Amino acid sequence: MSKPQAKDLSHLLSAEAKSRKNSPLKSAFKYFNQPGMTFLGGGLPLSDYFPFKKITLESPSPPFANGIGAQVTDEDKTVVEVFKDKTLNDPKYKDVELSRSLQYGYTEGAPELLEYLKEHTDLIHKVPYADWDLICSVGNTESWDAVLRTFTARGDAILVEEHTFSSALEAAHAQGINTIPMAMDEEGIIPESLAKQLDQWVGDKPKLLYTICTGQNPTGSCLSADRRKAVYKLAQQHDILIIEDEPYYFLQMEPYTQNIEERSKRHVHSHEEFLQALVPSFLSLDVEGRVIRLDSVSKTIAPGSRFGWIVGQAKFLERLVRYHEVTIQVPSGFSQSALNGLFQRWGQKGYLDWLMGLRAVYTHNRDVAIDSLHKYFPKEVVQILPPVAGMFFVVQIDASKHPKFKELGESPLRVEESIYRKGLERGTLMIPGSWFKAEGQTSPPQPPTPKDPALNKYIFFRGTYAAVPMDELENGLRKFGVAVHEEFGL
Question: What does the sequence similarity comment in the record state about its family (predicted)?
């Protein structure tokens, strides 16, 4: 059975995006390197004068039997060697030679790397409509900025999670976009609250719903399959695009347990089990082409590679390419040659092996963090919420139990600030939850959503188990736990 075509949603493009024209210079690039063609049309420096003969990288080899963090040995390593001269590259692999990758090139990304990423996307998400595609980017932060430019204008409103990545909020604020919070609980967006919010909306409906739905930053929540289906249905009903920002998607872990025997039984044995254990993405539910997925290697390979990709319906991606032509031009050639070389040698199965290794590592690190919270934090005032995805965890604290709560004006934020400072004095930095809070308003304002007053007394701090060795993680949480004990006189 053939897949349907994406729905025409071009009315959701911004005026800026609609006005962008094809670059005539970029359109001529298709003739570059064409046999028999003398290309004198572009400002392309001769690759003879690129001072790099080759790049060489070494990585562990699939299936990473000794773990993904094991020392690379001569007996168990993958060597990526990419030359400037195409004829010197190993014909077994689809390498992107340096004479091409370091040149002004395809704004969409190198064809070989695009092909690999499309296979990967189809393997993971099985996109249910026909005319989807992907383009390369400089990571999800740049992708988000490009999406905002393409679909919104100053004064527009967009939906964001009640607590979300502060840089994503700042990118929107700088463009004059109102970020309207959606209610959340420990499992992420609450579809029933969102439905009521949209039904009662005052003024022009939002075009975009921005979500970090797996391993959410900062809360660590993971939106269930049922909730994703409900949110997607609301997006259809209210004609909204879902921007699925998913750098943590493959950092999904085994459920937390304090039972050591149960932990020993947790294991994903095969690629099939791994894929089945992944929560369905919004992209995998999208039958209309109203999901734009932002993907990245920042959390699976290395953030400094500054490489990602955007998946969506082809008509939207064409507009994003027009924007990239006059901004980033093309992702880093070094990154494209290196990552493509690695992926071509690992293959799709090898990359899955790597991702399965990450699952095991993050499950262990999460366990160490949550065990430490149970060990060092006062249970009289804290609530511990073990995450099932991502690299963050939160500690929720009842501010009303602070001995100086009345003296601090019964302000949870002042309690939060006091705890933050005490944590710094003790030598551990955790991020206050208020730093991630979205507080935008529609104009005119919507009717307020009633909230349980008891919930207003809670604050939270965000930590990560990804940034330091495990002994340092435990010691850091011990010190912050001391700070919380001292603050509450426990």
Answer: Belongs to the class-I pyridoxal-phosphate-dependent aminotransferase family.
CA distance 331 to 323: 13
In angstroms, the CA 478 to CA 472 distance is 10
> How far apart are alpha carbons 265 and 210 in whole angstroms?
36
Identify whether the C-beta of residue 411 lies closer than 8 Å to the C-beta of residue 459. Answer: no
Tell me if residue 310 falls in helix, strand or coil: strand
* pLDDT > 90: percent of the chain: 83
* Gap between the Cα atoms of 208 and 239, Å rounded: 9
Tokens encoding 366: 């999460």
Backbone dihedral angles phi then psi of residue 141, each to the nearest 5 degrees: -65, -45
Task: Decide: 377 and 416 in contact? Cβ < 8 Å.
Answer: no
Alpha-carbon distance of 459 to 424, in angstroms, equals 17
The pLDDT, as a whole number, for residue 2 is 87
| CA 167 vs CA 142, 145, 172, 188, 217: distances in Å | 11, 10, 9, 19, 11
Q: State pTM to two decimals.
A: 0.93
pLDDT bucket at 451, cuts 50 / 70 / 90: low
User: 37-88: per-residue pLDDT in tens?
Assistant: 666 656 778 899 999 999 999 999 999 988 888 888 888 899 999 999 999 9
Tokens of 71: 């020392």
Query: Could you give the angle at which helices 314-325 and 140-151 cross, rounded to 10 degrees?
Result: 100
Distance CA 437, CA 248 (A): 20
**Coil/strand/helix, residue 423:** helix
Q: 382: which strand partners?
A: 397
Closest by Cα among 490, 478, 484 to 396: 484
Is a pLDDT exceeding 90 seen at residue 321?
A: yes
